[in-house]
Amino acid sequence: MCLEPEFFEARARYIERCVAHGEQTLEDWLETTGWMHDDLVQAGLLAPREIASTADLIDHRLTAAGRRYLRSPRGYEVLLVRAGRAQRLGSRLASSQ
């Protein structure tokens, strides 16, 4: 399945709205903090996800524990750090090292 340009436009608009409400993409948070996906996997917050098609943009899924800090809105193929949870997420990762 090939994603149309409209998907990426809608996704970008959705992410902008989320950022305006205090959330941030996990990718941006990881880049800012220096943590890596593997750190979240080791902490039990993410699990590897098999890519089933070219429409799958993320290769991790949330665990039950990860939903406390992150969310994955259906249909947008993005992981978001919940508003107000970024610092707690960093503390959780630091305590699991």
Outline the structure in words:
- With 97 residues, the protein is α+β, with helices and mostly antiparallel strands.
- The chain has one domain (5-95).
- It has 4 helices and 5 strands.
- It has helices spanning 5-20, 26-33, 37-42, 86-95; strands at residues 24-25, 46-48, 60-62, 70-71, 80-81.
- The strands form 2 sheets. Strands 1-5-4 form a 3-stranded antiparallel sheet. A two-stranded antiparallel sheet has the order 2-3.
- A hairpin with an 8-residue loop joins strand 4 (70-71) and strand 5.
- It comes from Spectribacter hydrogenoxidans.
* Low-pLDDT runs: none
Overall 3D form = globular
Name the helix and strand elements from N-terminus to C-terminus, one letter apiece: HEHHEEEEH
Number of helices: 4
- Describe the main β-sheet briefly: 3 strands, antiparallel
Q: Which strand-content bin applies to the residues? A: 5-15%
How far apart are the termini? 39 Å
Radius of gyration of CA atoms, rounded to a whole number: 14 Å
Mean pLDDT: 91
Q: Give the % helix.
A: 40-55%
Domains, number: 1
Strand tally is 5
- In the sheet with the most strands, the strands line up as 1-5-4
Structural class: alpha+beta
Protein name: HemN C-terminal domain-containing protein
